[in-house]
Amino acid sequence: MPSSPDLLPRPPSAARRPMAAAAACVAAVLTLLLAALTWPVPASAAGAGPCDIYASGGTPCVAAHSTVRALYSAYDGALYQVRRSSDNATKDIGVMTAGGAADAAAQDSFCAATTCVITWVYDQSGHGNKLGYQGPGGIGGSDTAAKATSESLSVAGSKAYSLYINPGNSYWRDGHLTGVPTGSTPEGMYMVTSGTHVNNGCCFDYGNSETTRKADGPGAMDAINFSTSCWFGGCSGSGPWIQADLEWGLFPGGSSSWNPNQRAFTSKFVTATLKNNGTTRFAMKGANAQSGNLATLYDGSLPNGYNPMKKQGAIILGSGGDCCNGNTNLSAGTFYEGAIVSGYPSDATENAVQANVVAAGYR
């Protein structure tokens, strides 16, 4: 009588098949786990700061400034310095915890019953690119330091103060020997600013500027401009807009013609980004800093005459590049945080930075 098929001896290869399949499955899982641990994506873990995110994307910060919070998860140093009018004493204002929000209570205590100005905004990147006001007692020039208590806000549930720029206030640093990109070297940057404190004066900028503090021609600057200034005319609406100050013009896109993809950003808190590969391409993005994703305003060729870039490697905050040594800043704007990075950041990195800004809880 023939044996039942279920009782017949199973060939050795068939016997090994379930074991081989199981082994293959385990190997696949291990491969995925290894990839997850090593894949070079921007940091998005809880606690990472914007400059941690840029670094994990291969574009490290070479300058990182803020009066409201740490931009690295491990940063526990000073954010800025204030000077009070009663006795000209100064005090560094730091963070309450590593990677946390500014210690506004320390400023309130130090400045009680008197007035204070912000004299220095410290660089968190370790490159030493701190910003001093462009006036006597600062880094030299004709401007004055911004009042330290013009605007308070809440970040991560804690009180903080902005760097509230009015005409006659501005900050600067010569960083060409301390990591800030020069010439046609690629770079990127972002800042958090405000759509409710702006004007059309020249020029509320944050970014790369002239070491000479003069208008040295096309490509000598690479900075974010946020204002209602319509440099070339033909603008649509009244702004404020995110534009690129590349020297000898505020560019809404790749030419002096109005870019129809431009839009106004009127929210209380605004994220603005700019990146420039130095030879062929630059891009600008913007968003509400309290919610939503970055919108691409322009991504394309550099304007004619700006290829290659000729960046000088100074850092400007609050004014144009030909200010303020012998003249004064005409612009108004608010600065909460920002950074300049080496290299051309990926879209994924910039999106992760925006998500981090939203999570910071600006109020």
Order of helices and strands: HHEEEHEEEEEEEEEEEEEEEEEEH
- Rg calculated over all Cα atoms: 25 Å
Outline the biggest β-sheet.
11 strands, antiparallel
Strand content: 25-35%
Structural class: alpha+beta
Mean pLDDT: 90
* N- to C-terminal distance: 86 Å
Please estimate the helix content: 10-25%
Structure summary, number of beta strands:
21
Large-scale geometry? globular
Query: What's the number of helices?
Result: 4
Instruction: Pick out the low-confidence regions.
Output: 1-45
Secondary structure layout:
Layout lengths: L11 H27 L11 H7 L4 E6 L11 E7 L5 E5 L9 H7 L5 E6 L9 E3 L12 E2 L4 E4 L2 E4 L1 E3 L5 E4 L12 E7 L11 E5 L12 E6 L13 E5 L4 E2 L18 E7 L4 E8 L6 E7 L12 E4 L15 E3 L1 E6 L4 H13 L4
Antiparallel strand pairs: 1-21, 2-3, 2-4, 4-5, 4-6, 5-10, 7-8, 9-20, 10-19, 11-16, 11-21, 12-13, 12-19, 13-14, 14-15, 16-17, 17-18
Key terms:
363 residues, single chain, disordered N terminus, 15% helix, alpha+beta, globular, 6-stranded antiparallel beta sheet, 11-stranded antiparallel beta sheet
